[in-house]
Amino acid sequence: MDGIIISTYILPIVLALIMFNLGLSLSFKNFKNVFNEPKALLVGLFCQMILLPLIAFALAGLSNISPEFKIGLLLIAICPGGATSNLITYLLKGNVALSVSLTSVNSILILITIPFFLYLGVHAFANDGDLITLPFLNTVGKVFLMIILPVLIGMLIKDYRKKTAVAIEKILKYVSIGLLALVFTLAILLNKNGERSLLEYYAEILPLALLLNLVGMLIGLFVGKFFMFSKATLITLPIEVGIQNSTLAITLAIGASFLNNPLISVPATVYGMFTFFSALLFGYLVKKFVKK
After folding, report:
1. What is the pLDDT of residues 237-277, one digit of tens each?
2. Which residues pair with 80 in a beta bridge?
3. Three-state helix/strand/coil letters over the chain
4. Higher pLDDT residue, 243 or 201?
5. How many CB atoms lie within 10 A of CB 271?
């Protein structure tokens, strides 16, 4: 299949369906949690939307990896997790209300933060314009159509046709697993390069991807301890900060309407291979051994 067709049509549609499914699991009532626990929410948003991207900027700037990988590392840091972090929080009996609230709010905030940080990253790390330029306002519009709009449509269905939403979500949650597998497969196929093997690419970025994941989870834990949050919130914050939306990052990297550079998707591909398991393990250890 032609790479242009994949990046222009298939990946955006796949992501839109995944975001629509996320919207079906949310409700406008979830935003009431913003007022029920504003302190933990604001702290979580700061860690997700500002602190982690700044750390990724520093890691990328201090490393000797290629400009594409530097932008890719930043890209994964500016795509906060969604349904996956909600699921892990639920499994570990964390603060599900906080997790859903963070997902609800950051799904709106990324309309601004993703184009902003990507614009900075491309201009900071690209070599003399070798990489595609990324117009800020144009990117805002594309992010809205591909991410925000499907989420809002899903939430509207959930609020006004709850039974319909539940029925659709039961089907789509399994379809989403297949779609995630498709996205990662496409990312791997599009990353083929005659000069170096995929294994070499992945081995180069793996240490930084692991470090970003670990630092994110530790930040969530220590910040939660500093503010003396409840045990449930101490479980939730590391998961929310540690898990990023690899699917979104890959789509933005490969998409013909965005960066259109398969190499930029390598960090997100590597990151997505292990973070579900690392976040689940980290959250379990926090639940079992960390005291409030």
Report:
1. 999 999 998 888 888 888 766 787 888 889 998 998 888 89
2. 244
3. CCHHHHHHHHHHHHHHHHHHHHHHCCCHHHHHHHHHCHHHHHHHHHHHHHHHHHHHHHHHHHCCCCHHHHHHHHHHHCCECCHHHHHHHHHCCCCHHHHHHHHHHHHHHHHHHHHHHHHHHHHHHCCCCCCCCCCHHHHHHHHHHHHHHHHHHHHHHHHHCHHHHHHHHHHHHHHHHHHHHHHHHHHHHHCCCCCCCHHHHHHHHHHHHHHHHHHHHHHHHHHHHHCCCCHHHHHHHHHHHHCECHHHHHHHHHCCCCCCCHHHHHHHHHHHHHHHHHHHHHHHHHHHHCCC
4. 243
5. 29
pLDDT digits (tens, 9 = 90+) for 50-88: 999 999 999 999 999 999 999 999 999 999 876 778 778
Residue 24: how many CA atoms within 13 Å on its side-chain side? Answer: 20
Looking up residue 163, the CATH number of its domain turns out to be 1.20.1530.20
Residue 226 neighbours by CB under 8 Å, 6+ apart:
none
Q: What domain range is 80 assigned to?
A: 3-289
Cα–Cα distance for residue pair 27/43, rounded to 1 Å: 22
What pLDDT, on a 0 to 100 scale, did the predictor assign at position 71?
94
Query: Structurally, how many domains does the chain consist of?
Result: 1
pLDDT of residue 184: 67
Total-model pTM: 0.83
Please check the confidence at residue 42 and state whether its pLDDT lies above 90: yes
Mean pLDDT of the chain: 83
